[in-house]
Amino acid sequence: MTDILIHQEAGISTITFNRVDKKNSLTAAMYACLADTLEAAATDDATRVVVFQGHETIFSAGNDIADFLNTPPTAGDAPVFRFLRAISTFPKPLVAAVCGPAVGIGTTLLFHCDLVYAGDNAAFSMPFVNLGLCPEAASSLLVTQMMGHHRAAEALLLGEPFMAEAALEVGLVNRVVPPTEANGLAQAVARKLAAKPMASLVETKRLMKKPQAALVQAHMAEEGASFGRMLREPAAREAFGAFMEKRKPDFSQL
Ligand code: COA
């Protein structure tokens, strides 16, 4: 599909978010394509490393709000939940290059990547509360573990954005570079990984993730159930309606 580009070369599968006119927001069809790609790449010997990238000006504005309003993901097999399961259990190395805004799942997917490179224009935000929702992708667990409770509360309760340098400081990104260099750096790192023995990479990643692999899946399932329920409740309807009508939401009665 044209909104998601897949390029396969020399053991590296590069997934590009390519819906720049809508700020690379993600529809159910895009999530299905991402899930299919990761599920196939997990067992395909031709793929040794997967790279996620966006555009130099925008990584992703998160869920497509209009799409979410029309077809809210309620069942566990909804494309967004399939994608989250696929990325959180992906056995091979995942590398990301992030420039510009990374909103909602645009940030939370990074907690499941192994190496993240950011342009100095990267802006991370998880405004779930501001949308009448709750975190997804096990972010309520993983953000707190990475940043500590107080900084996680700024990100998740206040929904405040943070820039590339702050992301570097808390360990969400490995390096900050000019936006023109981020994709190239991610590819260079992917090439290094692709040259290493695959079984060692996979076993090392498995061992690194094992201590809380079951916890992450259980937490994500609980978040998903709450998220699906809250999508249909008045606060989210108000927040999404306000976004579509380009006005501020009014939560004063909620
Ligand atoms: N869902 C659907 N459409 C979106 C979108 C989203 N998440 N984010 C942006 N768009 C659309 C806008 O509606 C606009 O469409 P239009 O040109 O038809 O009016 C277009 O993309 C450009 O967006 P705009 O807001 O004008 O760009 P910006 O550069 O001023 O701001 C963002 C970029 C990412 C900061 C801003 O678009 C934003 O905050 N988006 C919403 C993020 C969000 O809440 N995501 C949900 C997380 S669960």
End-to-end distance, in Å?
Answer: 39 Å
Any idea what the radius of gyration is? 17 Å
CATH architecture of the domain at 4-177: Alpha-Beta Complex
What's the mean pLDDT score?
97
User: What small molecules accompany the polymer chains?
Assistant: coenzyme A
Q: Classify the beta-strand content into a percent band.
A: 5-15%
Class per helix and strand makeup: alpha/beta
Envelope shape: globular
**Low-pLDDT segments, ≥5 res:** none
CATH class of the domain at 4-177: Alpha Beta
Q: Assign the CATH topology of the domain at 4-177.
A: 2-enoyl-CoA Hydratase, Chain A, domain 1
* Tally of contiguous helical segments: 11
So, the CATH homologous superfamily of the domain at 4-177? Answer: 2-enoyl-CoA Hydratase, Chain A, domain 1
Q: Kindly state the number of beta strands.
A: 9
Major sheet characteristics: 6 strands, mixed
**Widest sheet: strand ordering:** 1-2-3-4-6-9
Along the chain, the helix and strand elements come as: EEHEHHEEHEEHHEHEHHHH
Helix content: 40-55%
Please give the structural blueprint:
Blueprint: E1 4-9, E2 12-17, H1 28-43, E3 49-53, H2 65-70, H3 79-88, E4 94-98, E5 101-103, H4 105-108, E6 115-119, E7 123-125, H5 139-147, H6 149-156, E8 162-163, H7 164-170, E9 175-177, H8 179-194, H9 198-209, H10 213-231, H11 234-244
Parallel strand pairs: 2-3, 3-4, 4-6, 5-7, 6-9
Antiparallel strand pairs: 1-2, 7-8
Helix pairs in contact: 1-3, 3-10, 5-6, 5-10
Bound molecules: coenzyme A (COA).
Plain-language structure description:
- The mean pLDDT is 97.
- The protein has a domain at 4-177: 2-enoyl-CoA Hydratase, Chain A, domain 1, CATH 3.90.226.10.
- It contains eleven helices and nine strands.
- Helix 5 packs across helix 6 (149-156).
- The protein has 254 residues and is α/β, with parallel strands linked by helices.
- Helix 1 (28-43) links the parallel strand 2 and strand 3 (49-53).
- The relative contact order is 0.14.
- The strands form two sheets. Strands 1-2-3-4-6-9 form a six-stranded mixed β-sheet, sandwiched between helices.
- It binds coenzyme A.
